[in-house]
Design brief:
By secondary structure, the chain is mostly helical. It has 18 helices and seven strands. The protein has helices at residues 37-50, 55-62, 69-76, 85-92, 95-107, 109-119, 123-134, 145-154, 159-174, 198-204, 220-233, 255-258, 265-270, 305-311, 317-330, 348-360, 374-386, 397-403, and strands at 143-144, 184-185, 243-247, 263-264, 274-275, 287-291, 300-303. The chain has a five-stranded antiparallel β-sheet. Helix 14 (305-311) packs across helix 15.
Length: 404
């Protein structure tokens, strides 16, 4: 049986992150918002002209526009399963990608040093984002950005957002940063080596090589500096890492994880949180929260403010963990000290089943809704304690099986 302490009284970190470099797309029905393609093109031209786009540039980019069928299909796809953090990280931090990262670190050492000195972002973090976004330029996405955005806007799929990105993409072409045929990216409009949306390009893209063009498609220096500038703009802390894998005391109160408590590493150490590799924290004054993606039997992390900055690129804890871990591996670090447990993630229906089983066991948590709030979490921890299990409050396939 594991003893549960009272939560330590640290300030609660309220996290709110917006969409970063890549658009986070929700599934939606696709219904054309315009009577004809010609009418849509004419309206787009009027908007583009008002923003200073020339007819020559517009015709080259949009003159032969036809909605792209594959983009329509991708916009309607529903996710079929929920992946675990282990699935996500293992897929993206592969031996091959780590090896390529080592090679890129050597090949671009001079550029990375210059970029890091200007923006205060470590080179390995820049490499990790580049590696995860486009496999170090191996796959930029082969979809014409203007036509992809036009397809989404024409079809009524988040028309205001994608319509605005479409006009911005035309402004980028007008600025001469890239030719229309070379402006390629994902089906949802994320472009180039760093996978910037057009609006992000306008705010954060950098002409690091100094030739008058912000070429995030063909220039590695421009792309690396743009990634660094993006992170710096959202508060990257120079000289700090993203986080550490940690080990928790046997009687650790896991409510400290789920309440999102933020404390100094020194204070965390005072309640039994230590680095998994046995080394001391470099600075006890750094602040962190705990992140436990697959329960207390799997890897646990103390994540610093830079972890949240990475999430501005892609609002996902798993993404930020993959970036941070790949960066560490590129530096020569080892894998996690604790292996990923064999477990499955639950979709909304699975989480409702967990709640229904807790209700049957007498826990007053309200109607099952698939949202794991404080009442459900507290009930899980209490039931795990009574059942002689690790009271980590983690809701997953293993918990659902144990409750049966």
């Amino acid at each position: 049986m594991y003893r549960v302490n009272k939560p330590i009284e640290f300030s609660v970190s309220r996290r709110s992150f917006g969409i970063g470099a890549a658009a986070l797309i929700a599934s939606s029905a696709f219904t054309p918002a315009f009577a004809s393609v010609g009418g849509f093109v004419d309206q787009t031209w009027q908007r583009a002209k008002a923003r200073g786009v020339s007819k020559r540039v517009f015709d080259i980019a949009m003159g032969d526009f036809k909605p792209i069928g594959s983009v329509l299909e991708l916009s309607k796809k529903q996710p079929e399963f929920v992946s675990t953090a282990a699935d996500y990280v293992v897929k993206r931090v592969s031996d091959a990608r780590i090896g390529t990262g080592h090679e890129m670190r050597g090949e671009w050492a001079k550029t990375l040093k210059a970029v890091s000195e200007r923006y205060g972002v470590q080179g390995e973090i820049i490499l990790a984002i580049w590696g995860i976004e486009t496999n170090f330029g191996g796959f930029l996405g082969g979809t014409n950005t203007v036509h992809a955005l036009a397809t989404l806007a024409y079809g009524g799929y988040r028309t205001d957002f994608f319509g605005s990105e479409l006009i911005t993409s035309l402004e980028i072409l007008e600025g001469g940063h890239v030719r229309a045929k070379d402006m390629v990216g994902s089906w949802a409009g994320a472009m180039g080596l760093p996978q910037f949306m057009p609006s992000s390009f306008m705010k954060y893209a950098v002409d690091f090589k100094g030739d008058g063009h912000k070429d995030i498609w063909g220039s590695v220096p421009d792309a690396q500096a743009s990634i660094a500038n993006y992170l710096k703009s959202f508060g990257w802390r120079a000289g700090e890492t993203w986080g550490y894998e940690v080990k928790l005391a046997r009687d650790f109160n896991y409510q400290n994880v789920w309440q999102g408590l933020t404390a100094t590493l020194g204070d965390w150490r005072g309640v039994g949180v230590v680095r998994a590799n046995g080394k001391p924290f470099p600075r006890d004054s750094d602040t962190a929260r705990l992140y436990m993606p697959m329960g207390g039997n799997g890897p646990v992390f103390a994540v610093l403010p830079n972890f949240g900055v990475i999430k501005r690129y892609n609002n996902s804890d798993s993404y930020a963990l993959a970036v941070g871990h790949l960066a560490d591996r590129i530096l020569g670090g080892k894998g996690f000290s604790v292996a990923w447990p064999k477990d499955t993630a639950l979709n909304a229906d699975g989480r409702k089943q967990v709640q229904a089983k807790l209700l049957k066991k007498g826990y007053e948590i309200g109607k099952p809704d698939g949202e794991i709030g404080p009442k459900t979490r507290a009930a899980v921890i209490d039931w795990q304690t009574r059942a002689g299990l690790l009271p980590d409050g983690h809701v997953s396939g293993n918990l659902l099986n144990a409750l049966s």
